[in-house]
Amino acid sequence: MPFRTLLREIRQFPATAAFSLAWLLVFAAMAILSHRENPTQDWWGLLIRGIGTGQRFGDLSLAALRQGQVWRLVTCNFVHFSVLHLGVNLFAFYLLGSLVESWYGSSLFAAIYLVAGAAGNALAMLARAWAGSNPLNQSGGGSVVIMALIGLCATVGWRSRTSMGSDLGWQMAKAVVMTGLLGVAFSRYIDNLGHLGGLLAGVSIGLMHRGLLRLYGRPIAWLVGQVAMALIVASGLAQWADEHRRGSSHGDVREDLLRRAFEETNMTLGVVALLGEDVGGRKNAVRAFETAGGILESGGGRPPFRRGLALALAASKRPLGDAERAEYDRCLGMITAHVLNIFEPVFRLGPDPAAVDRLRALALAAESRPLAEEEREEFRRTIAMEKDFVGKELAERVRRYWRQQDEEARARARLR
To answer: CB atoms < 10 A from the CB of 294, how many?
Structure first.
């Protein structure tokens, strides 16, 4: 896009441009901070395969809401986890945002962004709470707002009773179907409830289309927009203040990082433990791979993880051949070595710090040949000890975390 055209677009749609720039700045800050904390992580893996968490920047979870962090209903709309996530959302948001901003003006569009994002996320959180979802599951991204804009445009188009409006409505319907199909195909990575919540919020706003048009250019529209921007900025400041308070103590930061490391280690041990089992006994292999997917899909663990998952799926349907069994063990050996390298500091905290060296030796052996039965037995015994240690340590750290959160919430309530 030529520079002059870009400047013209910014002047015509300043709110859309401002929100897009905020997305870019937040993602850049997340990437830089993540790389600074883990310098060994390559930039390609960080940007393309994903940053992993945006908790410090205001992503959303049931646990955070239960602690009174309601500002995350707004801040999570600015958090993206990879270049692909950001790029797709930016493209869709620019197209839809500039259209809606041209209807209502920049001030009302800012208010729509705030209300649609917060309401859509609130509906999604209510659904998660009702369904008993994991309270630590995190979500973020501008797609809730995008789905709200899709719902708004579809409602406006169909209610206009014109051929152009009808065409707009059908285009938006196709976008909803496409998003739904992607959500089914990649349910592990896509917040379907957030998309649904955003869509419902957008439809509700679309029903007020004529009233919003009457406000265009009036002082009340400007006032509403200023209030909306103030609330958005206040949400960002609340997140910054909360993170600053949590990070004021080095010990608190270290404890938080260790707890997350134990959580991720625990998620991968189900796959690692498969190396000590006979192929016929690997009944829950596919589930173990799916649980660890978010971690093992990154870095050097990705190729053996994907091939191992394919073989696990095959083994769930038919007996594997000798060559496939050998390849399966090679994949598990490579995955185990990868996990031991990533989480070695966690294993070193266990009752037998030297166990990680024995496990690594067995994993390297499995990469070149099938393990003997006595080697499998040693691996089973050692990994069972490590799983027991990680599970108990994680449970204690999670209990400690929630105790601290409850104490802080009570302290804030007393201050009010």
So the answer is: 16
- Written as tens digits, the pLDDT of the chain (416 aa) is 566 777 888 889 999 999 999 999 999 998 888 777 665 556 666 566 667 667 889 989 887 888 789 999 999 999 998 888 899 999 999 999 999 999 999 999 999 999 999 999 999 999 988 887 767 678 899 999 999 999 999 999 999 989 998 899 999 999 999 999 988 887 777 889 999 999 999 999 999 999 999 999 899 999 999 999 999 999 999 999 888 776 544 445 556 667 777 778 888 888 888 887 765 555 678 888 877 877 776 555 678 888 888 888 888 888 888 888 888 888 888 888 888 887 888 888 888 888 888 888 988 888 888 888 888 888 888 888 888 888 887 777 767 766 666 665 555 444 44
Closest CA to 384 of 275, 273, 286, 291: 273
Domains of the chain by residue range: 3-246, 250-403
CATH of 3-246, one of 3.90.1300.10, 3.10.50.30, 1.20.1540.10, 1.10.10.200: 1.20.1540.10
pTM (two decimals):
0.65
DSSP annotation string for 100-132: HHHHH-HHHHHHHHHHHHHHHHHHHHHHHHHHT
Q: Residues with Cβ < 8 Å from 33, sequence gap 6 or more? A: 56
